[in-house]
Design goal:
three-stranded antiparallel β-sheet, N-terminal domain of TfIIb, little secondary structure, 1 helix, 3 strands, elongated
Length: about 55
């Protein structure tokens, strides 16, 4: 297989994120076993940041 543009077309076959069992968003990373949205798998508390709040 080549390393050029043709190889990039084969990158979309594997799923990276699936629905999270805690928050329900499609942000749970299978490879790292961690949710990018709520932090499930990494921390017991919900992942929140002040800069991410919508006022």
């Amino acid at each position: 297989m080549t390393k050029g543009t043709a190889a990039h077309g084969k990158m979309g076959s594997k799923k990276t994120h699936v629905p999270c069992r805690r928050c329900g968003k499609r942000a749970y990373n299978i490879r790292t076993s961690c949710c990018a949205s709520c932090g499930y798998g990494k921390t017991t508390t919900m992942r929140t940041y002040n800069w991410a709040k919508s006022h």
